[in-house]
Design brief:
alpha/beta; about 20% strand; binds 3-isopropylmalic acid; Isopropylmalate Dehydrogenase; two-stranded antiparallel ribbon; homodimer
């Protein structure tokens, strides 16, 4: 097949990990006879430096025309004043909104070879296999904001339609997994959560084969630690999802390992490792490219329908995690390029 | 000294754990020659059943006249419909607001004898000693809410004055501890967080002896697991505090162990264990009273200025945690009354 992929390397280690992910995609394309065209554009801090805007119009236009978008990371100390008018994260939020990617999928598994890196006890990590579905284009992230000298406000807003579509996505994904959806809200306090809960409950009736459970966000923050293997698909609103997925990511031993896929109704998906721009190690060639490479696998699966190729990449990554080489964040000594090459070499072993 | 303490047992295990805490306070009073008068009032589900309201006027009046208020827990399956007009938690939110207790203190230490119960690896738990200061009377909990068939909104609002007072409280507490405050917000997305961050930064200048660090709430959710011993005082807004303190509570091995104190400018403090009403074990005499007993110790310290008596209770609890008896939630077989009696007996050993 032919596909057009826009890459948005962004800032910090973003370009380094994206280079590795693109190399893996090219290796897969070559083996399977696909043609992937890559086109790189600016986003985040580097875009602010070059154009004054965190999401230049040219970038957005290219993304809209692409089959999929692969993003590195945005931000860094140079642009880190949260009071500044123009900030790198605005680019990220703007592209999520513009592409309408309302469902952010963050799978979490703990590779057995890396259990020793997790802060959690080994017995807790057995059989952990969670898929977070975080609502990504609503809530307090995109609500009205006000600010005076004395006061600030953020409005969290959800419509029934916004909750319905992300709920359906979660239930459809649960069908292909262990048929269990946990919906997280704060319905004992927030009105948006009460709307969330009643909508999720109603949509759940369309999926009688899937079990629905509700949890309050504070309890869920605890249960992720005490009973992580109990959960299958966890669906929640934007801000709760931001917090819970980062908490869960700590379980995996390193942020550098975890991918994400952001999907809407349209075909253009946005794929990014969940780690940030890691300015402390940027430019040194030591960033772990696994999160970006696994994001590329999700791209093949969800935007291009290439399930076999996606599984092959995931198997190759698992092979490398089991046998090495390992990057520094997971206790090894290898750099980004070595990990990239090892994953590419493993594509043949696992095929 | 003479003091008037209002008890609000509430629902579920609330009455059982409060009985134990009151017995410990009475034992301390007898030993030290104090006179504590206790007066019990309704709150939560039982108040709804008796009066139709989760916080009856008589309860509020009594609390306002008291020297301190000791609360058990509210809620239970009988009143658990989040869409209901009248809910037990409304009583809790209303009393927090009415007493103006804007600073919710939640200390977290992991007793060495209980490290095996924590989901976290033992080496991570060493030297964990965190004091959360959660803003308790602002934010989305108390902002305007709207609801139509199609849409719901919650407004999160903070004024500079609200942030200033809780920040000062956090810095004052840090002075007596390890001189380190970590302020948690989501300043890369929320306007209220940007106001929070600039206010905290400004107030910090009044405390040059205390080190200030800012963390984003998503990073903090991770750092609590990967580097819990790095933190001293953590100050944050209401909803983030709700989530992070529950996450942190999981580290202690059981929710049943942890106390809280809610303080305002006035003298009336509100003290409650952080566990809920635990309807599954209510009425069986097996609830762990340690969270309530330690809340009573905080009451002596913060509302009555009885530091020695507070420390004595804490030492007695530590003695019981080290030597037993242990309640079921921490792997033992003893009931609420046995733990209560053991703590009271230990008051003499540790004095
Ligand atoms: C960078 C930030 C705006 C972003 C978010 O909060 O969504 C990040 O934390 C994430 O989770 O992708
Ligand atoms: C019961 C609920 C309203 C309450 C809160 O969210 O504040 C509880 O979770 C707490 O932390 O005290």
């Amino acid at each position: 097949m032919k596909a057009r992929i826009v890459t948005l390397p962004g800032d910090g280690v973003g370009p380094e990990v994206l280079d590795a992910a693109v190399a893996v995609l090219e290796a897969v394309a070559e083996r399977a006879g696909h043609t992937f065209e890559f086109e790189s554009h600016l986003i985040g801090g580097c875009a602010i430096d070059a154009t004054g805007e965190p999401l230049p119009a040219a970038t957005l236009e290219a993304c809209k025309k692409a089959d999929a978008v692969l993003l590195g990371a945005v931000g860094g100390p140079k642009w880190s004043d949260p009071q500044a008018k123009v900030r790198p994260e605005q680019g990220l939020l703007a592209i999520r909104a513009a592409l309408g990617v309302f469902a952010n999928l963050r799978p979490l598994q703990v590779h057995p070879a890396l259990a020793s890196l997790s802060p959690l006890k080994n017995e807790k990590l057995k059989n952990v296999d969670v898929l977070f579905v975080r609502e990504l284009t609503g809530g307090a992230y995109f609500g009205a904001k006000t600010r005076t000298t004395d006061t600030a406000t953020d409005e969290c807003k959800y419509t029934v339609a916004e909750v319905e579509r992300v709920t359906r996505r979660a239930f459809e994904l649960a069908r292909e997994r262990r048929q269990h959806v946990t919906s997280v809200d704060k319905a004992n306090v927030l009105e948006t959560s009460r709307l969330w809960r009643s909508t999720v409950t109603r949509i759940a009736a369309e999926y009688p084969d899937v079990k629905l459970e509700h949890q309050l966000v504070d309890s869920m923050a605890m249960l992720l630690l005490t009973q992580p293997s109990r959960y299958d698909v966890i669906v929640t609103e934007n801000l709760f999802g931001d917090i819970l997925t980062d908490e869960a990511a700590a379980l995996a031993g390193s942020l550098g390992l975890l991918p994400s896929a952001s999907l809407g109704e349209g075909k253009v998906g946005l794929y990014e490792p969940i780690h940030g721009s890691a300015p402390d190690i940027a430019g040194q060639g030591v960033a772990n490219p696994v999160g970006a490479i696994l994001s590329a696998a999700l791209l093949l699966r969800h935007s291009l329908g290439l399930e076999i190729e996606a599984t092959t990449i995931e198997a190759a990554v698992n092979h490398v995690l089991s046998n090495g080489p390992h990057s520094r964040d997971i206790g090894g000594k290898s750099g980004t390029a070595e990990i990239r090459d090892a994953v590419i070499a493993a594509l043949d072993d696992v095929a």
